[in-house]
Amino acid sequence: MGSIWLRDLPTALAGIPDVQYYAGWEYRSRSSGGFDKLLGILCHHTATSPTGSFSGYCKVAWTTHSAKPVASINLGRAGEIMVGCAGATNHAGVGGPRDMSGGTVPRDSGNRTLIGIEALNNGVGEPWPDVQQERYLALVTALCNHYGFVAGTDVISHHEYTPGRKIDPAGPSRFGSINRSGTWDMNIFRSSVGGVITPPPTTEPPPTTEPPPNEDWITWVMNNQPVLRKGSTGVFVKRMQHLLAAAGFMNEGNVGNYDGQFGSGTDTALRNFQKAAGGVVDGVCGPWTWGALMHTIDGIPTIKKGAQGADVKRMQHLLAANGYLSEGNTANYDGIWGNGTDTAKAKFDNAHGLAPSPPTDAGPKSWESLLNGWKW
Fold first, then answer.
1. Do residues 188 and 218 share a domain?
2. CA gap 156, 186 in Å, rounded
3. Given its phi and psi angles, is residue 301 left (phi above 0), alpha (psi -120 to 50 degrees) or beta?
4. Pairing with 356, which of 14, 46, 80, 220 sits 20 to 30 Å away (CA)?
């Protein structure tokens, strides 16, 4: 029997207003009891009619469904959030294995290791209301912050858990799509986690202008990276943290260093890096510091499979920051472009319009996408 129960969810979700708790939630679980281990979050849609009520769905999911209880938390079309289960639930089904920052979800074990969120949507073209999308992000952000999940690796869709069997979440939204079924691009979703409850006050938005002529691309990219300082949050902070680790100023194997939160530890690491690099030690990551982290003084070469060295290591860290390599596996940061790195880079390329891939390489367009999420 699993021993981990989410009875601290009221604390985890305290920053989100109007969260409701379904009667008996503290003791509700599947037959296996609590979770065996908490490894991440699995995002779903319900595939139910737009005319159905939120309260009616919650009742069915947790009290009358043949597979009850279904998922830990439900999310309504108007942004309603209802917590229904503190223990493990039935929501993942056949799927996996899946590498997460805290370990691997074994085959067919998502029910016992992943927190399930079911959001009401019919899954066949129903647009997602803005308030529901915002609440989805707020909910995932709160869970990541409380349970120490790393959004880049520990937040996945049902489709990613069991590709070929499930499409959810899907439908018109700000998160794009990756197939004809409208399955969300979870890299867009994951990159948005962290800035909903408390938006980063000092983080500039990612660049939206067209890329520059190739002859000045390095300067342009560095000048258009956001300026980060203590208190900033989000995916750009995560990328900076990975580059600090690649340079030896943060522990590569400690996934807590990649939390996307510019706190005291990150501030110390950045100042130490700035001092070692001969720059102004101000704890601010602007164009010069971004350039130093990318070692642009020697240019940024085009590299490909078989390459070795610091440039490969930086690319591996950025692939991890974007969710394409496991952040906690230090073997992924060996500075050698082998088969594992090549597979991750090919997936990144195909998701960012850098086809054809394979064969893979990392040139100007790749580096721009790795640093700022640009899709071509």
1. no
2. 7
3. beta
4. 220
Under a CB-based contact definition with an 8 Å cutoff, are residues 194 and 144 in contact? yes
Are β-strands 81-83 and 73-75 bridged in parallel, bridged antiparallel, or unpaired?
A: antiparallel
Quote the pTM value.
0.55
**Rounded Cα distance, 336 and 308, in Å:** 5
CATH number at residue 261: 1.10.101.10
**What is the structure's pLDDT at 81?**
97
- Let me know: does 136 contact 46? Beta carbons within 8 Å: no
Q: How far apart are CA 5 and CA 33, in angstroms?
A: 8
Could you say which of 132, 158, 192 is where a domain stops? 192
Helices (H), 14-108: 54-59
Within this chain, do residues 183 and 312 fall inside the same structural domain, yes or no?
no
- Encode pLDDT of 158-175 as tens digits: 999 998 889 999 999 988
Domain that holds residue 337: 214-372
Q: Do 129 and 168 fall into the same domain?
A: yes
* C-alpha dist (Å) from residue 201 to 45, 106, 222, 224, 273: 32, 39, 21, 18, 24
Calpha distance 176→188 (Å, rounded):
7
Q: Where are the beta strands (DSSP E) in the chain?
A: 19-21, 40-45, 73-75, 81-83, 98-100, 103-105, 114-119, 155-157, 303-304, 361-362
Which residues of the chain register pLDDT less than 70?
A: 195-217, 355-359, 375-376
Amino acid letter at 320? A
- Write the single-letter amino acid at 23: A
Same-domain check for residues 182 and 263: no
- Domain shared by 258 and 179, yes or no: no
- Distance between CA atoms of 110 and 106, rounded to whole angstroms? 8
Confidence at residue 189, expressed as pLDDT on a 0 to 100 scale: 92
- Which domain CATH number covers 74? 3.40.80.10
pLDDT of residue 372: 79
